[in-house]
Amino acid sequence: MGGLMGRCARIALTAGVCFALASTVTLEARPAAAVADTVPRAASAPPPVSPTPQSLARAGRDAVVTGRVIVVADEDTDAGARARLVRELTAHGAHRVDVVAPGQVPRAAAGLLTVRLGPATRPDVEAALGDTAVPDHAEGYALRVSGDRPGAQIVLGGKDAAGQFYAVQTLRQLFVRDGRQGWKAAGVRVSDFPSMPLRGTIEGFYGQPWTHAERLDQMDFYGDVKANTYIYAPKDDPYHRSKWREPYPADKQAELGELVRRATANHVRFTFAVSPGESICYSDAADRKALKAKLQALYDLGTRAFSIPLDDISYTRWNCEADRAAFGEPGRGAAARAQVDLLNDVQRTFIATHEGSQPLQMVPTEYGDLTDTAYKQTLRETLDPAVEVMWTGTDVVPPKITNEEADKASGLFGRKVFVWDNYPVNDFGNTSGRLLLAPYDKREAGLSAHLSGIVANPMNQPYASKVAVFGVADFTWNDRAYDAGRSWPRAMAHLAGGDREATDALLVLGDLEHLAPTFGATPWQPQAPDLTRRVERFWEAWDDGSRTEAVEALRAHATAVEQAPATIRGGSVQEGFVNDAGPWLDATELWGKAMVTMLDALAARQAGDREASDRLRAESNDLQQRARAVRVDPPRNSWGRVQPKVGDGVLDSFLVQADVRLELWDAAGGGENLALRGTATASSVEQNLDRLAPRYVNDGRMGTRWASGYSDDEWVQVKLAAPAKVAAVTLAWENACATEYTVQTSQDGVNWRTASTQRPDGCGNDVIRLTAGETVQYVRMQGVSRKTTWGYSLYEMGVYGAPAS
Questions:
Q1: What residues does 779 pair with on adjacent strands?
Q2: What is the rounded CA–CA span in Å between residue 264 and residue 525?
Q3: Please, what is the average pLDDT of the chain?
Q4: Where in the chain are all domains bearing CATH 3.20.20.80?
Q5: With contact defined as beta carbons under 8 Å apart, do 403 and 450 qualify?
Q6: Fewer CB within 10 Å, N- or C-terminus of the chain?
């Protein structure tokens, strides 16, 4: 204590003020350089800033970071903003940072960089901002950087404390190299504020919740990207849902307290959600008392935002007979009356009586459609107007959200809705084996006029979720300027610490993990769009006779796929991401090697060296088998120990097609997926659902599927458009796969020959190679035994070969 108090006394003598944080930072050696943007840019172009500011323009000379920097701050300066400012200055060339009060800038500061941080209304800040407009908007800020003589100056003025913090988050992205050794801040002026009041995430997935350390890291990340909301709602935390009446154990309570403090330091609104709907008796005073006690415990830890999700519960039954007497027979209207009675009570007797509390949030039982019902009508007409209502879009995982849809939802619930966006969450069957690394997209510009905010429901893998959450933060801050194509590489650069090579490797991996499923048949983002374009160009060039050029072009990208995992593991990328993506990186390296080797086999065969081609082809097939044997283990998701999907439907299809081209060298149409022009039929369809019909097994889309009835002897077959010599069959299984099945062929659809018997050890993508001697027109997957009590389910069945004619 003596050392700290003595230092404060010395500062007070010279500066007239003392802060709780160390006000002078002196470094014996220059710190390691912070992230540098290595992209060359014209002098007139300011560095890219994320989230995209409302207004950012050049405004004079860049300000050089001097060895000693003066920071002007006072008691109204946000502590978190001040601490981050000092950290960024020392990381960008300042050996010493002196924090002084307004009016106490020492004369020796002439020629030094001066940084003013505080409320935009503070006289010195207001004067230094000059004509830089200060937004009259919560969390807004103005920033001006000027390197003009006599002294370089940076001014950061916030509309409020959060605005000050966000001004510093923008400034840290404006530092660029000044020659080889030094740093400077780009001369700009910025007027900025968020378009949406609520921005961030809801940890609302099923499966293994995040660890305490992972959540702490997320709070820092949200501060970096100007996200202000985190809703604590992990479905598999028993004290959130099934044990909602019970207080958290002491150790968990301590963790939550630390999490609240970390969130607050980053201007993140820690929102505590408790989900009592599975067992609450709405009319029971004791249950209401228990609910409020749970909220009170978190209020005592510093929480000021609360949510009561009532999703994924039944409103066709009551949990107690007293509710039948109080609200009527179970049903939509009765459920809404009971819920409103509870929610209004909490809003009016807890939220309104607890100083600093934000309006109560809730998730309705009908959270994912635009149909008006007695349930929604009751909420619309009787729910307290202050309560925030969450909505997931037109479906649980919506392929898009438009202004028209959001406006209609707001009308249905009688207020602007707060979107719970189920991307990039991967806790449902269609996401089995997937990391969802596509950019945040398909949400319409202008939604800020219709929504109170958006929170993303992330994956069980927190670091991998940062790719999409970065985009969510960018979109919700300034939806009208959002561009997924610009935001996505910046998200990868954030994970890579600004390292260009690592960023490029992450973009390669992200392309292979691009598919984003919905609960329905059609994914809302495609798989591997970049690789798809490259493969299409390859076959066009190959078939046109430019074979050497085709191999060289695609081999360069295949090499990038092979090398991406090692680069990602090289040290620049956040360690948590490397751990999250570990099985996918293992598989990607093997798939990349297999692709390089197969291309070499094609080149050798084209050069006339069949022996080398056959050897390389066999090596590639072995690498593919090793890639298919990789498992996510131990799994964080409820889908368990599964094969990680990597470029599925694109990379593996290319390899099969190339293999068949070698098998049927120069045969007309050799290597074509003949199933795409065939007709599929099946022994049955699950519950006769059209969305699971046989035609989806050969439509070339990995997001659709066929599913059978619930018996072992079900089958699906494709009648080819013409008789053909078939060299390979591919089966892309959903989780309801076979533990044993046969591949059968027929010339007439009546007499069948068993070409192969398969006993896979998991549900993945199977490749069955056949002897391409016999001409056939029918190919069938005949089930022998099922893995689950469901039927068989296939995303896609490919038949590769050449027409017999």
A1: 718, 745
A2: 35
A3: 92
A4: 198-312+340-483
A5: yes
A6: N
Two tokens at 629?
A: 């044997």
What kind and span of H or E run contains 793?
Answer: strand 793-803
pTM for the whole thing? 0.86
* Overall size of the chain counted in residues: 805
Tokens at 689, concatenated: 């659902």
Indicate the pairing of strand 153-158 with strand 141-146: antiparallel
Is 217 an active-site residue? no
SS3 content of the chain, % helix, strand, coil (to 5): 40, 20, 40
Whether the pLDDT of residue 40 is over 60: the answer is no
Catalytic residue among 178, 312, 369, 384: 312
Please name the CATH architecture into which domain 496-663 falls. Up-down Bundle (1.20)
Q: Quick one: pLDDT band at residue 386, thresholds 50, 70, 90? A: very high
CATH among 3.40.190.10, 3.20.20.80, 3.30.2000.30, 3.40.50.11270 for 198-312+340-483: 3.20.20.80
Residues forming CATH 3.30.379.10 domain(s) in the chain: 2-192
Q: Which CATH architecture has domain 2-192?
A: 2-Layer Sandwich (3.30)
* CA gap 270, 267 in Å, rounded: 9
Instruction: Determine whether 179 is exposed, middle or buried from the number of CB atoms within 10 Å of its CB (0-12, 13-18, 19+).
Output: exposed
| The pLDDT value given to residue 732 | 87
Residue 85 scores a pLDDT above 80: yes
Asked if residues 324 and 283 have their Cβ atoms less than 8 Å apart, the reply is: no
Beta bridge partners of 765: 732
Q: What is the largest CA-CA distance in the chain?
A: 100
Please give the structure tokens belonging to residue 372.
């008006």
The answer to whether residues 682 and 694 touch, using CB atoms and an 8 Å cutoff, is yes
Contact 241, 278 (CB under 8 A): yes
Which residues in the chain are classed under CATH 2.60.120.260?
668-805
